Each structure stands twice: as C-alpha cells, then as structure tokens.
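Lab notebook, design round three. We kept the backbone fixed and only want residue identities now. Task for the bench partner: fill in a sequence for the structure below.
Input structure tokens:
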C-alpha cells in the first residue's frame, strides 16, 4: 500500500522577493559582506543565471547547493553565498536536512544569523502546510501517496523521534493530525490510554500511527511492535480501528499493515 517515489515541487516564483537583490537583510554577518552595489559582476551574473534556470525549468534539474543558494540570496543579499551553501550541506547532508535543522544547530554554522534561520524555518513551515493541505478532509485510501508525502515532509529528517496520530472519521477522511510525543534519537514515549482518550474526544472512528526513525532505517523494533499492539488493544473495546502504523525512514517508509504486523 505504501509506495516510494522521489518527487519534486516547483511553484510560480517569478514575483517572490526570494529572488530580489534589492531585499537587504538587517543582520548579515559583516565578515563576509560586500556592498550590494559593489558585488562583483561574476556573482551578479551567477545569481541571474540561477534565477533564470529555476524560473524556466523548476527545481528538478538543480542540485541541492544551487537550490539552497536561491534561498540564501534573500537572506544574505550582500555576499557570495555559494561557500555557505556548501558548508550547510556538508554539515547537515542535504537540502531537506538543512531546512529542517533545529535553529540552535543552524546558529552554530559560521555566517548563519537570525535572518537566515527565520527564512529557513518559514520555508519549512510552508512546505509542511502545503503537504498537509493535500490530505486534510480527504479519504486516506484515495490520497495515500499524498499522505506519505506529508509524513516524509514533516518527519523524515528529524534528529529525534516524533510520534504523530492521524485521526479518521467513518469515511476514512483525515479529520485531525496531532503530534503526541517527542523522544530521543531511538525512543519516544507513548501512552495507549492517552491515545484512546484523544480519539474519543475527536469522535474518531479509526487511527493511523506515524513515527520516524532518525537512523533512516524504517525497520520496526521490538518495542515498536509491542507499543502498536498495546495501542490496538486499548482501541478495540471502544470500537476504534487501528488502520495502520507507519514508520518513516530517510527515504522509505514501512507499513505495519502491508508487512502483516497489524
């Protein structure tokens, strides 16, 4: 039931301030700054080429460092951002992990200030909200790929375990999505009675459990299997169906239902 697809998204960006050299950040680090009017022509030309490539062809053909540069242009308009883009990718691994990195970790990278951190967090929030809009109030079965996209967008690159509850109505439409707990790199505390109580409060008819494995491997642990069974036993007397439990890895996911574990 759970398919794995690599997908890219590109929107209409022609009028966004992201690509404007006129937007000046207030707290650009002075050590690497250049006057906006004195940017070397090769930097100006490079920015123009990147903007043109993105507007004409979208993000699909652009490597992570170029896409990240497009974001950095707005936050750091007075400097060459290519070295910082490479440094961020070296530190965190890929574009998604840069965007989803915790602010305190981003702040440890030389050249990263409050303006850049804010822009990255706004970008992260926008991506999550767009993915969520594709699945809310829709039948889960008919929008399964969109649901998986949403789970990966919100959870795949987290450095600690997060546990989410997706509440469904009688038509299997998603009526609520809530984060129930956060844990450590390899454990998240979950309380079956609290899960059942919240399902009753929302008048949910079914649930999907979702949590991530920061290691990137979605294989279930013994504690994952035990926790799923305990939640299932708490829901059954209430007539609430545990539809599935998804474990989100870095690039793939595991469905308890598809694997015969539920």
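Proposed sequence:
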């Amino acid at each position: 039931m759970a398919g794995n697809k690599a997908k890219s998204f590109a929107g209409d960006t022609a009028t966004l301030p992201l690509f404007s050299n006129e937007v000046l950040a207030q707290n650009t680090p002075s050590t690497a700054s250049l006057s906006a009017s004195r940017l070397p022509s090769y930097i100006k030309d490079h920015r123009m080429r990147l903007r043109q490539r993105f507007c004409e062809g979208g993000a699909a053909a652009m490597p992570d460092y170029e896409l990240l540069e497009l974001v950095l242009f707005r936050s750091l308009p007075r400097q060459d951002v290519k070295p910082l883009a490479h440094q961020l990718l070296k530190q965190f691994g890929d574009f998604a992990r840069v965007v989803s990195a915790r602010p305190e970790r981003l702040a440890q990278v030389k050249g990263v200030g409050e303006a850049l951190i804010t822009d990255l967090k706004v970008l992260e929030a926008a991506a999550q909200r767009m993915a969520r809009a594709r699945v809310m109030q829709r039948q889960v079965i008919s929008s399964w790929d969109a649901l998986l996209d949403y789970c990966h967008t919100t959870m795949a690159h987290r450095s600690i375990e997060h546990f989410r509850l997706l509440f469904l109505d009688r038509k299997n439409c998603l009526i609520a999505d809530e984060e129930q707990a956060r844990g450590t790199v390899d454990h998240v505390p979950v309380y079956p009675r609290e899960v059942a109580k919240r399902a009753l409060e929302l008048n949910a008819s079914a649930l999907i459990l979702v949590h991530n494995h920061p290691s990137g491997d979605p294989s279930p642990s013994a504690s994952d299997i035990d926790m799923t069974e305990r939640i299932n036993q708490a829901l059954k007397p209430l007539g609430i169906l545990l539809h599935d439990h998804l474990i989100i890895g870095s690039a793939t996911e595991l469905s308890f239902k598809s694997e015969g574990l539920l």
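Keep this in mind before ordering anything: DSSP finds nine helices and five strands in the chain.
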